[in-house]
Amino acid sequence: MKVDDLKALLARVQAAELTIEAALAELAELPVRDLGFARLDTHRELRTGAPEVVFGGGKTPEQLVAIVAALAERGGNVLATRVSEEAAAVVLAALPAAKWDKLSRVLLVEQQPLVDNGRGTVLVVCAGTSDLPVAEEAALTAQLFGSRVERIHDVGVAGIHRVLAERARLEAAEVIVVVAGMEGALPSVVKGLCSRPVIAVPTSVGYGASFGGLAALLGMLNACAAGITVVNIDNGYGAGFAAALMNRRRA
Fold first, then answer.
1. 28-37 mean pLDDT
2. Rounded CA gap, 36 and 156, in Å?
3. Under DSSP, is residue 165 helix (H, G, I), strand (E, B) or coil?
4. Using one digit for the tens of pLDDT, what is the confidence trace for 222-231?
5. Which DSSP helix (H) or strand (E) runs through 41?
């Protein structure tokens, strides 16, 4: 339930268009809907301004269908991340309105227009092509939560002239998400080139001594450039959501 939905419900009670008992019936499932194997936080958007997002990893296709369908029943948009191709096929068959992006593994049920509530643009910068799945997860998440998103791909530090050539676009963005694996040096370079806040996303891309993204994570945490915030390894969703919040216009 959104704030506007609750206001409309209370206004109907105030105008005697709806009885108190009927209003209580509509609110009966707040703040949790219990599916047995999952308890959906139907109150989250009212509290935080953003609805619950489904993490698809580890869930069976049947569980994912039930969760996404229950959230979609409320009429809002539904986002699920890390959805496998197998699970996506089951959800798409059950919910024709759903769409699945193979690269990012993001599944979206879009029932309401995406509203631009950002002060500016979220720019997602990707070090290498292998980092694209995480970068696209960040980009699609930021878009869902109300930000205009631009993308810059394949500008890793092995060819530093590529990111130097994009300095004007870096400075024009409101918030920058930088996605990189290997040694994770790109966020430091980007932050050294512009005044914008940077959200760094380490990826698990790299050879043996990258330790599944740990090397990139530690490199980003130890960056000498001030103004970098670091999220967890491969956490494109967390970066995209944080960027959208940082970019959001205040009422």
1. 66
2. 46
3. coil
4. 999 999 999 9
5. strand 39-41
